[in-house]
Amino acid sequence: MLGIFSAKSGHPLADAKEARRVLGELSGREAASALDEVSGWLESVATDEILKLSERLALVFQLDEAAQQHARKLGRDYLTSPRLGRQQEYKLWQTNHDFWAQLASAYGHCLARYAAQEKGSETVKSEVPLLVVRMLRAFSSQLKWDQFRYGPINAELWQRMGHAYLLAEQAKCSRQSLKPYPAVPGETTVELEYLKALVFQASSMDSLLPLEIEIAERFIAYFLPQFVFTAEVRPDNVYWVDADKPAPPKRLAVLPQVAPGLRFFNAGAALARLETLLRRVEGGEVPADVNLGAQYSARIILPVLKHLALYWAPKPPMRSHDRHRVKSRLTAVNGLATIHARLSNQGGEESEAWVVDDVSLGGMGAQMPLGANDWVRIGALLGMQPEGGSNWLIGVIRRFSRESPTQGSVGIETLSKLPQAVVGDLGGMDCNAILLDTLHSGDTVRVILPSAAFEPAIPLVFAWQGRSARLDPVEQLESGVDFDLGLYRVAPPV
Questions:
Q1: b/e per residue, 217-239, with b = 16+ CB within 10 A?
Q2: CA-CA distance, 155 to 148, in Å (whole number)?
Q3: Any domain includes 456
Q4: N or C: more exposed end of the chain, with fewer CB within 10 A?
Q5: Is the pTM of this model over 0.85?
Q6: CA dist., res. 254 & res. 120, Å (int)
Q7: Which of 353, 381, 416 is the last residue of a domain?
Q8: 239 located within any domain
Q9: Is residue 329 part of a domain?
Q10: CA–CA gap between residue 401 and residue 398 (Å, rounded)
């Protein structure tokens, strides 16, 4: 696609020979370094005022294609690399996120110049559908990487995607099928790419782990052709968006004010197909016809399918318990070791002050500062002490979103209001554990154990009220960030 570039531009890639050299060398570069370099080139190409629009777009297309293999590899590294430190994890996230943001911006610059009918716009008219498809894919990828860290998400992203979609619709090319990349199988349309981003947002990713978010996105792409997307006001509409406004899609509680950019969508036949697949996976079958990017067990896939089924349903998910608005302070500590020390009156690491927004029988919502530790994540174990009280509660973070770079919002499930710290023997190994329930012979109790400590055949033995207590394992209920949650049966006292 390289052409004869304007001699007036001093941009290094304006020279065809130099551009071929740079693009050729990118394939052999280390992935992170290559993405950083491409991001730099994209920024400089997009802002060069002398390059013609056709030249600019040609270079953005080629830089995009040269980076795709590196982006896929670095994305897998972020999700699957074991034992990444927090700084390493953030650096990897930032490299990926910045690339997609810069790519979306570069395409946005090209589209804006085309929409403004810059000189030479007619020469790229036939490439506008591909431009918009790739732009929407880049914005969707930026949205996904934002969601990997649970926001915040800039509302302007929705307006920029919406305007791109509306422009393609006005040009009567929003449903034109095309191949997005030479090496990517299958075809897509502008409308499908826009709808994919809307469904992703509507599927409420703030309660999923990053790997689950990745799997959810793959399932969304698989079921997307069965979704219904329309400008019509219909009784089966579930979500709506105004493509002209800087706002995400919302569930349709009341009919929004009529506007030209108003669009509606629902799962259509996708929900029934998802529920059929869900039953197959519940039976232990892993779908071979869905491209999930890697092989995953039914245990990993099942929670994702259940989550999507809830949010694609015509009726919104119902809360198990009524929530009541409050404003109170809460002392929070993180991690099994710290919580065990607090319950044992042995001090522990510094605590944080959170503000509770609402409470229910099953949990609470709270606002919290995002400090330097940045440990807050889905599945993190919490010790919580309400203001003015001496008792501790045990909970797990189930929902997390960044309201700003320094402020976060969490949804917490309360596991126990009367936890007890014990030091026991687990197959000959000392084990600091937390009992969540009261011990009664023959009953089952839940126990928090260190990560990977639960064993199906090994009892937990510890001193309890002057005698020896034994808990026989029944099943592992959950594996969190740094803990296992096991169900045990209380053996008769000896």
A1: bbbbbbbbeebbbeeeeeeebbb
A2: 17
A3: yes
A4: C
A5: yes
A6: 45
A7: 416
A8: no
A9: yes
A10: 11
* Count of structural domains within the chain: 3
Domain final position from 151, 177, 202 = 202
**Same domain, yes or no: 433 and 402:** no
Q: Are 115 and 107 in contact (CB under 8 A)?
A: no
- Rounded distance between C-alpha atoms, residue 27 and residue 403, angstroms: 38
183 and 67 share a domain?
Answer: yes
| Whether 338 and 467 share a structural domain | no
**Domain containing residue 392:** 324-416
